[in-house]
Amino acid sequence: MKRLLPSIFAAAFALSASAAQAQDKPPLKIGGILDMSSLYADITGPGSETAAKMAVEDFGGEVLGRKIQVLAADHLNKADLSANIARDMLDNQGVEMIYDVAASATALAAGEIAKARNKIIMFNGPGSIRLTNEACGPYTVHYVFDTYGQANVTGLAAVKSGLDTWFFLTADYAFGQDLEKDTGSVVTKTGGKVLGSVRHPLNTSDFSSFLLQAQASKAKVIGLANAGGDTVNAIKQAAEFGITKGGQKVSPLLAFVSDIDSIGLETAQGLLLAEAFYWDLNDDTRAFSKRFMERTKRVPTSAQAGVYSSVTHYLKAVKAAGTTDAAAVMKVMKETPINDFFAKNGKIREDGRMIHDMYLFEVKKPSESKGRWDDYKLLATVPGNEAFQSLEQSRCPLVKK
């Protein structure tokens, strides 16, 4: 027995030293740059921070002997503030990866900061196609949706069903402009016509003058190239003005289940919309959404579900690579298919676009809904290679042609 004691003490000392060494390692920090208080807060905001924390907890809370810490900051929908937050996170706070960055102008600004520092940035809330075209980077991932995919899924279905003349109500910044351009291109290529457009400031409360112009165009479809609170307000006011009763169709080119909840089925019924995720699609989406709802009292939006999926994919890649070095981690991320509740056989391409299925939904009538959040009927599943821009069309300098 006496002979065993030294070896027991040695083993205990080694374990103690190992634990102390792990505690001495700095935490692995990931930082969210979010809209926590304005028109996109329900789409991303606190829900995206919660999703990131859930991903970290489910992963085990640490990787490579380092505790994982989730940070979040409010960019107030200001591009310069978003850039400053990204700079502070990467230069001063030791953040290794930035997630979400709701809104396109803020994402483009933060993306340039991350690119200059060779750090990974994963976009979940923004939509601008520029993020995987001109503004792409070797460590940039556009995970959930983009303006091309939204336009392709919604615009194509609408024109094919006979809704072939369009007028756009467009948010006057990068995302809105790209969404109008991409949808207009789909409409004209499919044989439809764009009769005109009008641009409105971000976070508009009164859409009356813009809606009157759209109404006067006699277009069959008023395409809403905006998001969040702007989409909600425009749809509500279009109903108040009797535009939909007059025969024109309002098509939100980017809408989330949180928007439909705000609008209400009475007003939103019949809307066609494209989404990357819906909480009630299958058993896997329902299981995740149930856990998310226990914390937030709301179902996850596609952006929030994408945060969980992308953070998990990143952490798995860090573990597999054995390092947080951006080049090594990104290599693993691009080589590894994504199979979870969010995506089946998802793949990150060389331009940073994560390819996955998209879905076309119709908003239910109140009589068809079984309760709050039961809002969508699935009309079509569009494979990712059909929904998103092809590599041949890409304007990303990283793409070899």
Automatic annotation (TrEMBL):
Q: Which UniProt keywords apply?
A: Amino-acid transport, Signal, Transport
Domain Leucine-binding protein stretches = 27-364
Supply the CDD domains for this chain: PBP1_SBP-like
Q: Which domain of life is it from?
A: Bacteria
Q: Which residues form the signal peptide?
A: 1-22
Q: What Pfam family does this protein match (any one)?
A: Peripla_BP_6
Q: What family does the Swiss-Prot or TrEMBL record give for this protein?
A: Belongs to the leucine-binding protein family.
Q: What is this protein called?
A: ABC transporter substrate-binding protein
